[in-house]
Specification:
The protein is of the alpha/beta class and 244 residues long. It contains eight helices and ten strands.
Length: 244
């Protein structure tokens, strides 16, 4: 896939970011975190251990690239954002991380991950509760890094159906307040699959309306649906990015 990208872009364009979808890479929880793992406790004590395991997978990914391919990749982009999911092979527990990899330095320079779970994930997802990790500055620009479902904190439909006194509504409001104070110029989202522009359209349109500082945004696209894609790829790409 990277070779295919470079075949069309190398020496023709340069990029600040290469954006991947959620779950672009995966890893298993280390053995000491596979049994009797309490989610709330893990959110407080085990995130760094899981990031360390994920980092090993990322290092292997880049080490396995052809040296010429990696050299060309470094000449084409500054940063490579990586959606990497970790799974507990003994049950349904998971963590959805996002790493920002500095191609020039050859290492991960920033970690965050999903903080806003889907309904089906509330019991099993190890959330990234430190919201500050989503807000970074690179190349003198303010950037927000989002996991898959995190973008739905901006969805009017999703927030309208949320319990106004529930933790998800309060979390969404807290994140949006922090986001508006930060005044990001770029927002990068890492969804797992996107086969129709309608999935993220409302949320991105709300971002455009409520945060005029945002000059660019994009979703990492894996154009797939096991039951068949529902929208045209060109429309998907058009509705999941903003260029000014």
């Amino acid at each position: 896939m990277i070779e295919k990208f470079l075949a069309t872009e190398y020496k023709k364009r340069t990029y600040e970011f290469i954006l991947t979808p959620g779950g672009f890479l995966t890893f298993d929880f280390p053995n000491n975190l596979q049994y009797d793992l309490d989610i709330a406790k893990a959110e407080k004590q085990s995130v760094s251990s899981l990031q360390k395991e994920a980092n090993s997978g990322i290092a292997s990914f880049f080490n396995n690239l052809n040296p010429t391919t990696f050299k060309r990749l470094k000449e084409t982009a500054d940063y490579f954002t990586i959606g990497i999911d970790g799974f507990n092979p003994t049950n349904y527990q998971l963590i959805e991380l996002v790493a920002v990899y500095d191609l020039k330095k050859g290492k991960v320079i920033s970690w965050t991950g999903k903080f806003y779970p889907t309904e089906g994930q509330k019991k099993d997802l190890i959330k990234i509760n430190d919201l500050d990790t989503h807000f970074i500055e690179l190349n003198n620009q303010r950037i927000v890094i989002l996991g898959c479902h995190d973008l739905n904190v901006f969805s009017p439909r999703g927030q309208a159906t949320a319990n106004p006194h529930g933790w998800k509504k309060q979390l969404a409001d807290r994140f949006k307040t922090q986001c508006k104070k930060f005044k990001p110029e770029i927002i990068l989202q890492h969804p797992h699959t996107t086969d129709t522009p309608n999935i993220w359209n409302l949320a991105w349109r709300t971002v455009e309306k409520e945060m005029p500082n945002v000059k660019h945004f994009a979703s990492g696209i894996k154009y797939y649906n096991r039951n068949g894609v529902r929208g045209d790829i060109d429309k998907v790409l058009e509705k999941t990015k903003r260029e000014t």
